[in-house]
């Protein structure tokens, strides 16, 4: 069993999950009643996809107990920013090399 807590109700069929509690037996009865109890284990939980610059947000339909992820934009990581910069530098170097090559051809044809 798991318990979904601190949920945000968006509609009767759509709840944004705040916290996944994998040991609901440690919760008080009131806490369990405030959450959504699911007959699942951690292994049964859906796994989010890796999407660049997106963060997974878990949703639940409290009527059917269906779970799914939706993806929202997130700020880029330092690694992503560095990768972007390196890609731009590579592009600039390639353009610079092409310009130098053209200039060399022009100079050799005028000599």
How would you portray this structure in words?
The protein has about 110 residues and is α+β, with helices and mostly antiparallel strands. It has helices at about 30-35, 80-110, and strands at about 1-5, 10, 15, 20, 35-40, 55-60, 65-75. It has a 4-stranded antiparallel β-sheet, with no helix packed on it. The protein has a 3-stranded antiparallel β-sheet with strand order 4-1-5. Strand 2 (about 10) and strand 3 (about 15) form a beta hairpin. It is rod-shaped, with a radius of gyration of 26 Å.
Q: Summarize model confidence as the mean pLDDT.
A: 95
What is the total tally of β strands? Answer: 7
Largest sheet, strands/sense/barrel: 4 strands, antiparallel
Listing every helix as H and every strand as E from the N terminus to the C terminus, the arrangement reads EEEEHEEEH
Determine Rg (CA atoms, Å). 26 Å
- Fraction of residues in helices? 25-40%
Strand order of the largest sheet: 2-3-6-7
Shape, please? rod-shaped
Note the beta-strand portion: 25-35%
Number of domains: 2
Low-pLDDT runs = none
Structural class based on helices, strands and sheet pairing: alpha+beta
Distance between the termini: 82 Å
Alpha plus pi helix count: 2
